[in-house]
Amino acid sequence: MFNYNITRLEESCSQLIDTLGKTLTWKWDDRFETVLAEFSVTKKEKIHPALTRHMGEIWAVDQGRHPPKVVQMIIDYFGGLNPGQTLFTSDPNLDGLLLCAWWPWGNGKTISIRLGVFADTLSDQDNEELTRLFRGWFGI
């Protein structure tokens, strides 16, 4: 096991699961190595405020501020942000952050969210272990 304090990330995930557990069903997204939930826009008013409360930082196109390097790396990993898409993160100044990509679908009826963890100071092996733990917190 790597020498890394994961308690903060695990607690954040547990709080999100407790808040959204009955509203969302999670599955693993191999493409982005994140947990994925898809839901009707009718649930937006419950889910969006919960993410805002638990994450703390919101990044969107043309919001007038430039994201820190670590956040820009995540945005680039997802292929950028289009209008209407949002990236939520925990504090980007702390190593190891929780992230959530908010992606409304073009049909106007569905929204996808992808949650993940990111720590740019860990080795590939340690990041794999962190991802394994993260999946376990969500039961997938």
Description:
This protein is an alpha+beta fold and 140 residues long. Helices cover 35% and strands 25% of the residues. It has one domain. Strands 1-2-6-5-4-3 form a 6-stranded antiparallel sheet, with helices on both faces. The longest helix is centred in the first third of the chain and has 14 residues, at 7-20. The radius of gyration is 14 Å and the shape is globular.
What's the SSE blueprint?
Elements: H1 7-20, E1 27-29, E2 34-40, H2 44-55, E3 57-60, H3 69-77, E4 86-89, E5 97-104, E6 110-118, H4 124-137
Antiparallel strand pairs: 1-2, 2-6, 3-4, 4-5, 5-6
Summarize the structure.
By secondary structure, the protein is α+β, with helices and mostly antiparallel strands. The chain is built from four helices and six strands. The protein has a six-stranded antiparallel β-sheet, sandwiched between helices.
List keywords for this structure.
35% helix; globular; 6-stranded antiparallel β-sheet; 140 residues; alpha+beta; 6 strands
Spatial shape: globular
How would you characterize the largest beta sheet?
A: 6 strands, antiparallel
Order of helices and strands: HEEHEHEEEH
Mean pLDDT: 90
Spatial ordering of strands, largest sheet: 1-2-6-5-4-3
- Percent in strands: 25-35%
Question: Can you tell me the number of structural domains?
Answer: 1
**Uncertain regions spanning at least 5 consecutive residues:** none
Tell me the span between the first and last alpha carbons.
20 Å
| Helicity, as a percent range | 25-40%
Structural class: alpha+beta
Give me the Rg, rounded. 14 Å
The number of helical elements comes to 4
Number of strands: 6
